[in-house]
Specification:
About 55% of the residues lie in helices and about 10% in strands. It is α+β, with helices and mostly antiparallel strands. It has a six-stranded mixed β-sheet, sandwiched between helices. The protein is elongated, with a radius of gyration of 22 Å.
Length: about 325
């Protein structure tokens, strides 16, 4: 994950308090690497914490993580969230991998139950240190910058979970109607709705792009799309030309984030891949790697062969900074 906006870290307690804001959620059973270069946080990487009997399974992901960190950073701070018998061996494996990749390991901390321990042999930090997030200025600065962590990763997944109950029933009706409308438009233009077919008629693409532009305008006003508008937008995003227009217009803004969360949750399964991928791109551009990965998983569950999601997945796995990915794919750059 790329670190969002700017938070100043000067002490170990600052680091411990800040990690949930960088991740987007409070980590549990996790090994987190805060990656730095030229004294700036470049991104945050997280690995699942293995059970002691499974520590050998960490070797490969640790080596991959170390290679990624070495590509974009020169130093790392490690924080393990969990009991000592799980954190300490996992931290040793990752520390060894990082040093082999010529990455300096500046700190190794274990965090649990409102306390942290130094695992790097510092005699001044041999005992547990109680920390109080409420006493730190970091939460206030984060709130001012619009950063707020969720309870855990499951809460982040719930943020984009499909709607249920009566709303789900309404969206099924609206979604089926939208798909029939799109199929009729394509059939009337002589181009059936199917992969590998010739480009759709210009008037159909124009209608789709208009729907995207109207959706962005609606989001900019802080309004919510109707059931029919969500269904039609999700349907026209099946057209690559419309989808490409939508994602090249993504800017990482909070308005775009709310829009694509809403559409991802309300779209029927047949049309979920595109809005979920657009949400992943929006989160990626905003530096919210946690949401980007979860949205990407949602897109690929809807369509494992979705090419744009696969492309973004490769960028996330390689740790490509958003501005480089955006410049390579659209010619635009983030601030």
């Amino acid at each position: 994950m790329v670190a969002p906006r700017t938070l100043r870290l000067t002490t170990r307690e600052d680091i411990v308090v800040t990690v949930p804001y960088l991740l987007g959620f409070h980590p549990h059973d996790s090994l987190v690497s805060v990656v730095l270069d030229d004294r700036r946080v470049r991104f945050v990487a997280r690995l699942d914490l293995p059970q002691p009997s499974e520590i050998h399974e960490l070797s490969a992901p640790a080596a991959q993580t170390a290679a990624l960190i070495a590509r974009y950073g020169s130093a790392a701070i490690l924080l393990g969230y969990g009991p000592a018998d799980r954190v300490e061996p996992a931290a040793d494996v990752l520390t060894t991998a990082l040093r082999a990749a010529t990455v300096d390991v500046l700190e190794v901390l274990r965090v649990a139950d409102g306390r942290y321990w130094c695992l790097c042999g510092d005699p001044d930090c041999a005992d547990a240190v109680v920390y109080n997030p409420a006493a730190s200025i970091i939460p206030a600065e984060a709130v001012y910058l619009g950063i707020a962590p969720l309870r855990d990763r499951a809460a982040l997944e719930q943020l984009i979970a499909p709607v249920t109950g009566a709303e789900r029933g309404r969206m099924r009706v609206a979604g089926d109607t939208a798909l029939r409308r799109l199929t009729d438009m394509l059939s009337n233009g002589g181009v059936p709705l199917a992969d590998g077919q010739p480009s759709p008629p210009a008037h159909v693409v124009h209608a789709g792009i208009t729907a995207v532009q109207q959706a962005y305008e609606t989001a900019g006003r802080g309004d919510t799309l109707s059931d029919d508008d969500v269904a039609w937008l999700a349907a026209v995003l099946l057209l690559p030309q419309v989808r490409d227009h939508a994602w090249t217009a993504c800017d990482g803004s909070d308005e775009h984030r709310r829009l694509w969360i809403n559409v991802t949750r309300r779209a029927i399964p047949e049309t979920t891949a595109a809005p979920a991928c657009l949400l992943a791109i929006t989160a990626y551009l905003a530096g919210d790697g946690a949401l980007a990965n979860i949205a990407l998983d949602r897109s690929l569950r809807a369509d494992p062969d979705y090419h744009l999601a696969q492309l973004l997945g490769h960028a996330l796995q390689a740790g490509v900074p958003p501005h480089l990915w955006q410049a390579a794919t659209t010619g635009k750059t983030t601030d």
